[in-house]
UniProtKB/TrEMBL annotation, chains A, B:
Cofactor(s) essential for the protein: Zn(2+)
UniProt keywords, alphabetically: Hydrolase, Metal-binding, Zinc
InterPro entries: DAPG_hydrolase
Domain DAPG hydrolase PhiG: from-to ranges: 48-253
Protein name per the record: DAPG hydrolase PhiG domain-containing protein
Length: 257, 257
């Protein structure tokens, strides 16, 4: 199967094709602030072990920003404000987009190349499944396996809590049996819609060989560390895709949800 | 000959000296967007082999931005909107500025240090000639040989096409017989003036030893790659110099063109 960025002739001939828009809005001001700030003090950042703190009311010291963690890893946080969106729309989106590259491309038209489920199945749900994607992070082309896990696994039980939704995944390679990080997208209602609080924990102790052991992990970490994205590229990518999709997610969900 | 940045006592005592202005305008918003975006997916960027696509109507997926290309190289694109400017003014400028450092300094008063033609000649034309310049790219001081080539060499025949002008050059060192890249500045009329679409292809396969062979190229590439500018510095420099000069190019051309 040929993979390529963007839509080519015929790709828009689907019921949802009219939602493909290669023009992306500039980054929100708070993301620019975070880029200008540069790396943050780790004590302002959330540890994976404290992921459950995302269930608390209020906001964290760093809702958008990035910084190094111990042992060579880093974390990225992105806040996306989404008027008119509900958390349930995102829950639907994660179960809907991964079975067709033309859906996946709606999300980030300048970076998303292909998507399919490792189980070969269609849409409808995502927890417990692995999404195999090809995408750019900055200029780096990556072939990733995104294994969606029950939020309970990160202490965020349950999957839906009141009106909030938490999307959690182990991030790894689709070519090698190596995982390199974790992500959480916590989506909760606000007065005018919803806000997404994204967190990535990458590299360092978060690198692991699938079905491996401590020795394999210690050997693979230096190699896998070279495959990590630049934290700025990851922050920009996340902010771009979430803002881009949020602008038409209510309309998309109204038609296909 | 002493070289230095900026004008010193007496340097402005020329017919054009009144145009020297060390104050530079802030970067346009679309250049800031590109800096914030960071490296782009290579599939949104123009290959050197497709340079002739600049002759098409419309705009490319990336008119301002930068990203890595295969084999260690990178490309930079900059769009400069220039009210009141015509493409022919730029054609004149490229033949006029290179014979006197005091002219060259008008263009980027914070980065341009010296300029002379390798043939020792005066002004009037540039295609087929080599401009030897010293300038800063970011904090890096570079001594460059800019060998202007006929646009036909990059598939952009002819030099002037209708009202548009293409300025094309091989970029290299003035101290070593090594080239490190290519540039195109395509200038075409717009409703209110002209727009310049600059493209640089640097490093990787674009490094070559002048009058060398494949073996020399493969040996010199790793060394030459360390001399490459940061793509962000190159993008900023280009946007600054083109916007700066464009603000007074019509007046300069009216007096000296």
């Amino acid at each position: 199967m040929t993979t390529y960025l963007g839509y080519r002739a015929g790709d828009a001939d689907t019921a949802w094709g009219g939602f493909f828009d290669p023009r992306m809005a500039p980054l929100p001001g708070h993301v620019l602030d975070a880029l200008h700030h540069g790396p943050q003090a780790d004590q302002t950042l959330l540890d994976l072990a404290s992921a459950a703190d995302l269930l608390d009311d209020g906001h964290h010291a760093t809702e958008t920003g990035y910084g190094r963690l111990g042992r060579g890893g880093f974390t990225v946080a992105v806040l996306t404000e989404m008027p008119g969106v509900t958390p349930q729309m995102w829950d639907w989106w994660f179960g809907w987009h991964g079975s067709d590259a033309r859906r996946y491309k709606l999300w980030h038209p300048r970076a998303h190349v292909s998507a399919r489920w490792a189980d070969g199945g269609g849409d409808g749900h995502y927890v417990g499944r692995t999404s195999l994607v090809e995408e750019y992070l900055g200029s780096a082309y990556t072939k990733a396996a995104i294994r969606f896990v029950p939020p309970e696994q990160l202490g965020l039980a349950p999957h839906r809590r009141g009106d909030a939704v938490a999307v959690c995944a182990r991030l790894g390679s689709s070519e090698l049996p190596v995982d390199i990080g974790w992500l959480v997208h916590q989506v909760r209602p606000t007065a005018g819609g919803a806000e997404m609080r994204s967190r990535f924990w990458m590299g360092g102790a978060h690198i692991g060989v699938r079905h491996g052991n401590l020795l394999a992990n210690s050997m693979i970490r230096p190699v896998a560390a070279r495959q990590l994205p630049d934290p700025r590229d990851l922050m920009v990518h996340c902010a771009q895709e979430m803002n881009h999709l949020a602008a038409f997610l209510p309309a998309l969900h109204a038609r296909f949800g």
